[in-house]
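Table S2 (text version). Query chain:
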Amino acid sequence: GRYFAMIIDLTHTITPDTFVYPGTPAPAFSPTRTIAHDGARETLLQVGSHTGTHMDAPRHILPDGFGLDKLPASQFCGRAAVLDVSHLGTGGIVTADFLQAQNGFLRTADYVLLYTGWEKKWDTPAFLEEPFPILDEEAARYLVRCGLKGVGTDAISVDALVNKEFSAHHVLLEGGLVIVENLCLRKLVGRKDIMFFALPLKFADADGAPVRAIAEFRDFPEPEEKEMDAQ
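Corresponding structure-token output:
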């Protein structure tokens, strides 16, 4: 039967005020050509590779890890399972036990996306100042065992900002997954049949890159339409 696809953007707009990981230079835009002077506009972008809604490559943390430019395009899309972990609140920990209790839901997915609720704090100091829910090491190991392509979050990291060992990053990236951070996930909560796409800029040896992340929902027709199709 026919289905009707709906596309939702999951990407924050990058501006000079966009929140960045502590110590990262702020984005900066400057015109290199103008309509008045050149008949066309062009802009020089100064944007860190982990700015805004972005993807981490294995190369981000692992000395011999692959860059995003070396990964196949198939790594950047797939079926998504969205988990609402916003009830965990400030300082919350996503555990392996919590993930295992999802009735095999994650085993059918390519991406697991964690809605922490921190998306609502974007553009406020609380986004960085309040400890957001994170994965513990055993949860990260469980996700690797699920055979995923990647993990996403609406927070700025899957590890606490005070965790200088980047424990969950190491487990996930060593397991061959990519990580997508600073997503907009609120509109996906409660949805089941989701296709997720997060396409990074392709530059040499990319340890990470901004992505345009989108979701596609497939709404199948009503039964009477299916019956009409069958006749």
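Notes on Table S2: The two ends are 12 Å apart (CA to CA). The longest strand covers residues 208-219.
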